[in-house]
Amino acid sequence: METKTVVTALAALAQDSRLAIFRALVQAGPAGLAAGRISELTGIAPSSLSFHLKELSHAEMVSSQQAGRFVIYTANFSTMNALLGFLTENCCGGNPCSPVCTPACSTEKEPS
Protein backbone atom coordinates (compact mmCIF):
# COMPACT_ATOMS: atom_id res chain seq x y z
CA MET A 1 0.00 0.00 0.00
CA GLU A 2 1.38 3.39 -0.96
CA THR A 3 1.94 6.01 1.72
CA LYS A 4 -0.42 8.48 0.02
CA THR A 5 -3.22 5.90 0.07
CA VAL A 6 -2.54 5.15 3.73
CA VAL A 7 -2.67 8.84 4.65
CA THR A 8 -5.95 9.28 2.75
CA ALA A 9 -7.52 6.27 4.50
CA LEU A 10 -6.34 7.35 7.95
CA ALA A 11 -7.54 10.92 7.33
CA ALA A 12 -10.98 9.59 6.36
CA LEU A 13 -11.19 7.56 9.57
CA ALA A 14 -9.84 10.37 11.77
CA GLN A 15 -13.27 11.90 12.32
CA ASP A 16 -15.87 10.75 14.86
CA SER A 17 -18.81 10.31 12.48
CA ARG A 18 -16.82 8.58 9.74
CA LEU A 19 -15.19 6.24 12.23
CA ALA A 20 -18.64 5.35 13.62
CA ILE A 21 -19.95 4.71 10.10
CA PHE A 22 -16.99 2.53 9.20
CA ARG A 23 -17.26 0.53 12.42
CA ALA A 24 -20.99 -0.04 11.81
CA LEU A 25 -20.21 -1.30 8.31
CA VAL A 26 -17.44 -3.59 9.59
CA GLN A 27 -19.86 -5.00 12.16
CA ALA A 28 -22.50 -5.53 9.45
CA GLY A 29 -20.03 -7.60 7.45
CA PRO A 30 -20.13 -8.27 3.72
CA ALA A 31 -23.92 -7.86 3.56
CA GLY A 32 -23.52 -4.14 4.27
CA LEU A 33 -26.19 -1.64 5.26
CA ALA A 34 -28.57 0.74 3.55
CA ALA A 35 -27.91 4.43 4.17
CA GLY A 36 -31.07 4.77 6.27
CA ARG A 37 -29.97 1.97 8.58
CA ILE A 38 -26.50 3.51 8.94
CA SER A 39 -28.20 6.77 9.91
CA GLU A 40 -30.31 4.97 12.52
CA LEU A 41 -27.36 3.09 14.01
CA THR A 42 -25.02 6.07 14.19
CA GLY A 43 -27.48 8.88 14.87
CA ILE A 44 -26.06 10.86 11.94
CA ALA A 45 -28.54 12.96 9.96
CA PRO A 46 -29.00 11.77 6.35
CA SER A 47 -27.67 15.05 4.94
CA SER A 48 -24.42 14.70 6.92
CA LEU A 49 -24.26 10.95 6.31
CA SER A 50 -24.05 11.48 2.57
CA PHE A 51 -21.01 13.75 2.98
CA HIS A 52 -19.24 11.29 5.28
CA LEU A 53 -19.96 8.30 3.02
CA LYS A 54 -18.53 10.25 0.09
CA GLU A 55 -15.32 10.89 2.04
CA LEU A 56 -15.02 7.23 3.04
CA SER A 57 -15.71 6.16 -0.54
CA HIS A 58 -13.08 8.57 -1.87
CA ALA A 59 -10.57 6.95 0.52
CA GLU A 60 -11.71 3.52 -0.76
CA MET A 61 -12.74 2.52 2.76
CA VAL A 62 -16.35 1.82 1.70
CA SER A 63 -18.04 0.57 -1.44
CA SER A 64 -21.63 1.00 -2.57
CA GLN A 65 -23.99 -0.75 -4.91
CA GLN A 66 -27.54 -0.19 -5.98
CA ALA A 67 -30.05 -2.74 -4.68
CA GLY A 68 -33.45 -1.82 -6.03
CA ARG A 69 -34.30 1.61 -4.66
CA PHE A 70 -31.65 1.37 -1.94
CA VAL A 71 -27.92 1.95 -1.99
CA ILE A 72 -26.10 -0.66 0.10
CA TYR A 73 -22.78 0.37 1.61
CA THR A 74 -20.14 -2.11 2.69
CA ALA A 75 -16.78 -1.75 4.35
CA ASN A 76 -14.01 -2.30 1.84
CA PHE A 77 -12.30 -5.17 3.68
CA SER A 78 -9.43 -5.42 1.19
CA THR A 79 -8.47 -1.78 1.83
CA MET A 80 -8.94 -2.25 5.57
CA ASN A 81 -6.72 -5.34 5.57
CA ALA A 82 -4.09 -3.60 3.44
CA LEU A 83 -4.10 -0.66 5.85
CA LEU A 84 -3.74 -2.98 8.85
CA GLY A 85 -0.95 -4.83 7.06
CA PHE A 86 0.86 -1.56 6.34
CA LEU A 87 0.52 -0.43 9.96
CA THR A 88 1.77 -3.73 11.36
CA GLU A 89 4.43 -4.49 8.77
CA ASN A 90 7.66 -5.42 10.52
CA CYS A 91 5.85 -5.26 13.86
CA CYS A 92 8.13 -5.72 16.87
CA GLY A 93 11.21 -5.90 14.67
CA GLY A 94 10.27 -9.35 13.43
CA ASN A 95 9.84 -10.79 16.93
CA PRO A 96 6.57 -12.46 17.94
CA CYS A 97 4.09 -9.95 19.31
CA SER A 98 1.79 -10.48 22.23
CA PRO A 99 -1.07 -11.07 21.72
CA VAL A 100 -0.47 -12.85 18.43
CA CYS A 101 -2.26 -11.21 15.53
CA THR A 102 -5.24 -13.09 14.14
CA PRO A 103 -6.06 -13.41 10.45
CA ALA A 104 -7.68 -10.36 8.90
CA CYS A 105 -11.34 -10.27 7.92
CA SER A 106 -12.49 -12.13 4.86
CA THR A 107 -13.79 -10.19 1.89
CA GLU A 108 -16.11 -12.98 0.82
CA LYS A 109 -19.83 -12.42 1.15
CA GLU A 110 -21.78 -14.90 3.21
CA PRO A 111 -24.26 -17.01 1.25
CA SER A 112 -27.81 -15.64 1.24
Care to describe what's here?
This protein is α+β, with helices and mostly antiparallel strands and 112 residues long. Helix 2 (16-28) crosses helix 3 and helix 2 (16-28) crosses helix 4. It contains five helices and three strands, in the order H-H-E-H-H-E-E-H. Helices cover 51% and strands 12% of the residues. The model has no long low-confidence stretch (mean pLDDT 89). The protein has a three-stranded antiparallel sheet. The radius of gyration is 15 Å and the shape is elongated.
Helix content: 40-55%
Bulk shape: elongated
The helix/strand series, from N terminus to C terminus, equals HHEHHEEH
State the low-pLDDT regions, or none: none
Annotate the secondary structure layout.
Layout (H helix, E strand, L loop, with lengths): L2 H11 L2 H13 L4 E2 H8 L3 H13 L3 E6 L2 E6 L1 H12 L24
Helix pairs in contact: 2-3, 2-4
